[in-house]
Design brief:
Length: 214
């Protein structure tokens, strides 16, 4: 799948952080021993486990939709405009986040901060659109198992977007020129949040296909 290839490529790009110890030894001959940096490996492991949780939600949703139909007069069809807009928002936010990383790599901290703030704004717009959709759905949280699973799945993803947006805002503050802790020499915090954000965006694409197109 295209999304799977993109996600694997992003992991490969960010796993370069694991070579930090070699660089330290090269630049500091006096260093005789240094522990490998497995922070990115730990994050990837967490995201894989998190992905399995989403897979369970997807399986439950499809099962309940098949065996627990809505009462007569109700419909399964969901409106596409808002979810489609949300898909565009998250895909664009992935691009703006990538721009932020590229700018920071070139020591353009101000540009990186602007791209990060724009990414956070796109995340906030996504959440507002999702709340708007909740208020206009043809079913409620407690109508049946299908409805409950739908809300649980989209709500769980929304929680991830909320956490990601908060982390992006924190990162945007830390890349500032005066007093910021994140720079081209310390890229891990930004790379970690970027990988997490791409993961959340990829999950949404799968969610969009399963919930709104199938």
């Amino acid at each position: 799948m295209v999304m799977e290839k993109l996600f694997l490529n992003e992991i490969k790009y960010n796993m370069t952080t694991l070579d930090n110890s070699k660089e330290i030894k090269k630049n500091n001959p006096d260093v005789t021993e240094h522990h490998e940096d497995f922070r990115m490996f730990g994050l990837v492991t967490f995201l894989i486990a998190d992905g399995m949780t989403f897979a369970g939600f997807f399986a439950a949703y499809l099962t309940y939709k098949a065996v627990n139909p809505l009462p007569d007069g109700s419909i399964y069809e969901l409106e596409l405009p808002i979810p489609t807009l949300n898909t565009v928002l998250l895909l664009v936010s992935s691009a703006t986040f990538h721009k932020a990383g590229k700018a920071l790599l070139k020591d353009r901290n101000s540009d990186s901060q602007k791209w990060l703030i724009l990414t956070a704004i796109l995340g906030l717009i996504f959440l507002i659109c999702q709340l708007f959709e909740y208020f206009h759905l043809p079913f409620g949280l407690k109508d049946n198992l299908f409805a409950s699973t739908f809300y649980a799945l989209t709500g769980f993803h929304g929680l991830h977007v909320t956490l990601g947006t908060l982390m992006i805002l924190i990162i945007s503050w830390q890349v500032r020129l005066n007093g910021g802790r994140i720079s081209s020499k310390n890229m891990f915090p930004l790379e970690a949040v970027e990988l997490y954000w791409h993961f959340v965006d990829g999950i949404w694409v799968i969610l969009f296909i399963i919930l709104y197109l199938l």
